[in-house]
Amino acid sequence: MEVGIVMGSDSDLSVMKESAAALDEFGVDHEMVIASAHRHPEKVARYARAAAEAGIKVIIAGAGGAAHLPGVIAALTTLPVIGVPVAGAYLGGADSLYSIVQMPRGIPVATVGINGAFNAGLLAVQILALEKEGLREKLAAYRQRLAAGVEEKDRRLRDR
Questions:
Q1: What is the mean pLDDT of each run of 10 residues along the chain (160 residues)?
Q2: How far apart, in Å, are the Cα atoms of 40 and each of 36, 46, 60?
């Protein structure tokens, strides 16, 4: 496994599965784990401390509400951690976003937008592509497909 996708609760799965979808699109091996920073901090600590030795190169961590999971993981590993703020019932995810993005100096967490799990997966691919030419080529082809999609939409608009 090259990427670990960790979420605080199974209620986050509907968002976090998008990280897995992005990784699947590029053929990147990954695992998904539920490990709550508040309800089971020992499990989070075990996972974060053992991740590098297990072959994990990037961790994507998503949580809602107080959203301490990405920061706690980042404090326990030197691996890159990408935080995904998950929208909750009360503040639309702003609480989660602020919790993840406001990390103290020295313990960074790369943070995507609220419910931006697909982009988190793409960011993990970009990090891995630093050392994998095949992934760089797949990313270039993906970007070309995005550009072609814009051109196609523009063509359809003009043909109306």
A1: 97 97 98 96 98 98 95 98 94 95 96 98 98 97 97 95
A2: 5, 10, 18
